[in-house]
Amino acid sequence: xxxxxERQLIWASEDGLVKSDVIGENIxxxxxxxxxxxxxxxxIAWFEDLIYIVANNTLxxxxxxxxxxxxxxxxxxxxxxxxxxxxxxxxxSVPSQQLIMHSKLHGEMRKPLSIPAKAYEIEIDAxxxxxxxxxxxxxxxxxxxxxxxxxxxxxxxxxxxxxKLVMGLTLDIENEKIYWIVKSHSGSSxxxxxxx
Length: 196
Hints:
The chain is mainly beta and about 200 residues long. It has 1 helix and 18 strands. The strands form 5 sheets. The protein has a 4-stranded antiparallel β-sheet, with no helix packed on it.
């Protein structure tokens, strides 16, 4: 694990894609907004010198060593991206096709997971071998290797058309927690549960 001084965040801002320390200071621009064009960045994942960017429902890869940005060919409708750093696999969700795809780190050897879900957000717990995903109405988790007969752990669900929407999903691996937000007409609420 990195010390507090070594930890960094990567985030999208008005200036483009930036890197900073955990309190948002010492900012370095990784990609200027003009270089990206008129895009809306909706998700980011990071592994070693590769940054995966979901922008305008496409998947881009920035190699921070060579400073080369590529678009993953024939990958559209992407909502979320995550990396399994142990198996060195890239995952992304395509909700319009109810697919969660995976490949090698540079997008080669693409295959769908056998998880039929309209996943808008995905997170990988590489240490435990689990995937967590959010549809707009539920949070679920499964084993990545298909063991336990594909048993699904249901964390949360709202009724369709209830006026509530599941938004945001993140994992706290160190404290073994999953967090998500439920938005409604009366405000937003933060929920948490233990990881599988």
